[in-house]
Amino acid sequence: MLSLKQSLSYSVLAAAVALAGCSSKTKLDDQANSGTGTAAYDASGQGQSSISGVDLSISPIEGEGPVNVAHTIYFDFDSYSVKPEYQATLQKHADFMRANRNITVTLEGHTDERGGREYNLALGQRRAEAVRQTLDLLGVPASQLEAISYGKEKPKATGFSEEAFSQNRRVEIRYNK
């Protein structure tokens, strides 16, 4: 049986996913801002606690986030809607970040290589912002989160297949050291 806190967290996450889904059909402007920012933080965490069975202690390599939790959120083609299948993953990251308030995270938005540079930078930014908004709704303070876009500049996979494209449509959650 879920506790009231878990039930409320899942309700907030479900609402965030639903809201993000409503806006996923919005076409991005090809003339979107082509600028991108980067951040470098010097932060380390010292957490040793657990919420609903999630290990909130820092992983063996300092600053890498919760142990045994995926750090990549994948997206459908031309979409920045966070899929429901990532609810549990983002909940675990949110629990970890709330328990370790001195940790900061960079949410790096990426796209596949189809589309122009400006379009892909805008889409990558919207993907990173969608993950940031979901974490925000789960109680992570804005001061711990930064959303940036690399567009198609840092592919995870090479090639011109749907498999390669799908691996590049992502947001990577990077814990800053």
UniProtKB/TrEMBL annotation:
Residues 62-177 form the OmpA-like domain. Keywords: Cell cycle, Cell division, Cell outer membrane, Lipoprotein, Membrane, Palmitate, Signal. InterPro entries: Bact_OuterMem_StrucFunc, OMP_bac, OmpA-like, OMPA-like_CS, OmpA-like_sf, Pal, Pal_lipo_C. Gene3D superfamilies: OmpA-like domain (3.30.1330.60). SUPFAM superfamilies: OmpA-like. It is found in: Cell outer membrane. It is a lipid-anchor. GO terms for cellular component: cell outer membrane. Coiled coil: none annotated. PROSITE patterns: OMPA_1, OMPA_2, PROKAR_LIPOPROTEIN. Residues 27-48 are annotated as: Disordered. One of its GO terms (biological process) is cell division. Residues 1-20 form the signal peptide. Part of the Tol-Pal system, which plays a role in outer membrane invagination during cell division and is important for maintaining outer membrane integrity. The Tol-Pal system is composed of five core proteins: the inner membrane proteins TolA, TolQ and TolR, the periplasmic protein TolB and the outer membrane protein Pal. They form a network linking the inner and outer membranes and the peptidoglycan layer. Belongs to the Pal lipoprotein family. This is Peptidoglycan-associated lipoprotein.
